[in-house]
Sequence to fold (193 residues):
Amino acid sequence: MTRKINRIAFWVLAIALVAGGAMFYFREGLFRGGNGYVPAQLRPFLQASRLELIALDPGALRPAQKQAGGNAEVQTPQPLCHGYPVLGAVTLASAADLEEIRAAIRDLDRSGRTWNGLIAGCFTPRHCIRLATSSGVSDLLICYECHGVKILEGSTADEQKVTGTIYMAGAAPAESGIVNAILTRHSIPLPKE
Fold:
């Protein structure tokens, strides 16, 4: 009897794992044969004469302050980017800054093209590269921890939708290092690792 119960439990678990994997597979668009982005989506970032680099704190709670004359705490307004607190931002317009950030974007694309099919599920982005034009706003929301990038596009930053996802072959420390070096040079606090 115990053997029969173990066999049934095994098959129930196996079916649940296969069904869960299939749901994730189709939800993420992997059935399309790979990464859910078109490299042409990165072209506007590579051709831009001005980009904004935003440092995010994915795990921080908004700081609280004591109300004057009382013990109650109130939330301090803090800028958010896709729901994540902004540590700081810098507009990149110099040739040197733009070439560095373009190198990081090309690395994302190269890594996405050689992606091995593995996905980590954390998605705790610490960086955002924003392109604002007269026709709308596009963001690259980057999580080097799980090797994922969401491409978001919309007429305004508040109306953006995910239009692509880059899964990286494996983020080398140098990849986030390039972005962090730009932030450091401009005195922007670095995201906690």
In short: Strands lie at 51-56, 64-66, 73-75, 80-81, 84-92, 127-133, 136-143, 148-154, 161-167. The two ends are 51 Å apart (CA to CA). The first strand starts at residue 51 and ends at 56. Residues 34-59+75-185 form a domain with the Dna Ligase; domain 1 fold (CATH 3.30.1490).
